User: What shape does this take?
Amino acid sequence: MSDTVEIKENKEISKPLLAQRFRGYFPVVIDVETGGFNAQTDALLEIAASVLSLDEVSGKLSIDETIQFNVHPFEGANLEPKALEFTGIDPTHPLRGAVDEDVALKTLFKLVRKKMKLAGCQRAIIVAHNAAFDLGFLNAATARCNIKRSPFHSFVSFDTTTLAGLALGQTVLAKACEAAEIDFSNSEAHTALYDTEKTAELFCHIVNKWHELGGWPLAIAAE
Assistant: This one.
């Protein structure tokens, strides 16, 4: 029995650090901009994702690569005028360089699978601010595109709203970034690319601060 436990522990230690950090999950920070609040009926207009890496020496989490797409509304999609006014997105603008949902998702999933494999992780997990919203739109778009196998867990997520409330006493992204001393421009906010990168910086800040305080690995905290 003890030999079996030792072999299992050795296998865990030999895994890349990121594979150990979140129980085999590969965190991917995502933000979407949409034509409303209903993932089933309202258009997905922008999606961005930041994949992360964990330094094997310092244990610091950081942004590895970010990918972003402007997306054509799916056929029959609802576009709420107030949502478009809030984001400033013109879905008909000829210079948007938009792609169809399936192109955006398949390209994103290909990148995630590649990075996830390199990190030794088994499943991707979405990291987002108010994650249920972004995950809902991601799942709905995946279903519309008939993509049978998403790299993402269908319902588990890391919500930086909750994490920031715990670690920084703030739940609004701009205020949480301010508390973490991360530059934040309200004039640049509400684009998928900007919000994704700021959410990624915030998530990395919280994870790295926890590491500095001795919260992970747990063996250090227990000593």
About this structure: The beta strands are 25-34, 44-54, 61-70, 123-128, 152-159.
